[in-house]
TrEMBL record:
InterPro entries: Aldolase_TIM (IPR013785), DapA-like (IPR002220). Pfam families: DHDPS. It comes from the Bacteria. Coiled coil: none annotated. One of its GO terms (molecular function) is 4-hydroxy-tetrahydrodipicolinate synthase activity. Keywords: Lyase. This is Dihydrodipicolinate synthase family protein. Belongs to the DapA family. SMART domains: DHDPS. It comes from Mycobacterium gallinarum.
């Protein structure tokens, strides 16, 4: 675990590689329970079989808004237990976003005590009074904890920090060392780097990596919270091989490989299945049911209740068919 004082030096040396954002497998009536055996299998698969070096726990793909505080704590504990058994050096990242600062603090202190390496706080989903309010939220957590902190700047929050607002949080809170920039606005990430050049940035618009932004030091050598386990198998490690080329600065080879291996086409075929609900196309979501259906296509366990908990909708047959076809064309199944 990185303490607040150590956070920035730690981030520069340890936030590397693919960091898998884990889904939550539900079971029981209406998904009221969690299938812990399925969750343990997922963790072992990501760390032990795929050999991915980082985990990202209880965040958007996990449907944190539908989980109780105790469920979120236990999910993190199990991820640490199984992940470290498979790889003692696995980096465990915990999202502790919550509707109140007090709940966020409770989850953050639990992550600190349980052995997580870093905590990410998504921009508050309710009553965020701009950047000043988000800063105050972060300051409340930082004053009462001693663990590395990251920002999670997602449009699903309803408010996206400007580069100046993110840089101010970084400047005023030494524990803040990294950010997941999830708003798909690379120009803003470049501006943020200019204002806070030592902040470790993951830009979700991954084309910037092909443009040499890692070489330029604008972004870091990590996929901080992605679903890499849905883009490869242990027998067909195309996602890992592609990113190794990027991180090795072999950009022409990476571009050619992404086309030849089918990664680029798979991204097009999947389209917005994971992040767009057709009934609200202007809203960015983490559609848990879509991620879990994709996992089931690859043979991963998703629990006996395959849907998301409320308030998310059930995945349509049309979306399932599109996901099926995308995987067949990619060659990971069939």
């Amino acid at each position: 675990m990185a303490t607040a004082k150590e956070a920035r030096e730690w981030a520069r040396g340890n936030l590397r590689g693919i960091g898998n954002s884990l889904y939550t497998p539900f079971s029981g009536d209406d998904g009221d329970d969690i299938d812990w055996d399925a969750y343990r299998t997922l963790v072992r698969y990501c760390v032990g079989e795929l050999r991915h070096p980082m985990l990202w726990c209880t965040s958007g793909i996990a449907e944190f808004w539908s989980l109780t505080i105790e469920e979120r704590k236990r999910l993190l504990e199990v991820a640490i237990e199984e992940g470290r058994a498979a790889d003692p050096g696995v980096v465990v990242q915990a999202c502790t976003a919550a509707m109140s600062a007090k709940d966020c603090l409770e989850l953050t202190l639990h992550a600190q005590q349980a052995g997580a390496d870093i905590v990410y706080i998504q921009t508050p989903m309710m009553e965020a009074h701009g950047g000043a309010g988000v800063l105050r939220f972060f300051q409340y957590i930082a004053d009462r904890s001693d663990i590395a902190l990251g920002m999670f700047n997602s449009p699903s929050s309803g408010y996206v920090l400007t580069p100046a607002e993110g840089a101010r949080i970084y400047d005023e809170i030494p524990a803040v060392c990294a950010t997941k920039e999830g708003a798909f606005r690379p120009t803003a990430s470049r501006q943020l780097h200019g204002l806070a050049p030592d902040l470790t940035i993951w830009e979700c618009e991954t084309t910037v990596y092909r443009a040499g932004w890692l070489r330029a030091g604008i972004v870091g050598p990590a996929q901080l919270g992605t679903s890499g386990y849905l883009y490869e198998t242990p027998q067909h490690r195309v996602f890992s091989e592609y990113w190794e080329l990027v991180w090795s600065d072999k950009l022409s080879d990476a571009i050619d490989y992404a086309e030849r291996s089918g990664i680029d086409q798979f991204t097009v075929d999947i389209g917005g299945c994971f992040t767009c609900y057709p009934g609200r196309p202007d809203y960015f979501t983490h559609w848990g049911g879509a991620f879990k259906y994709a996992a089931s296509v690859l043979g991963l366990p998703i629990g006996s209740y395959p849907h998301s908990r409320p308030p998310q909708a059930e995945l349509s047959q049309e979306a399932k068919s599109r996901i099926d076809a995308a995987y067949r064309r990619f060659g990971l199944v069939g």
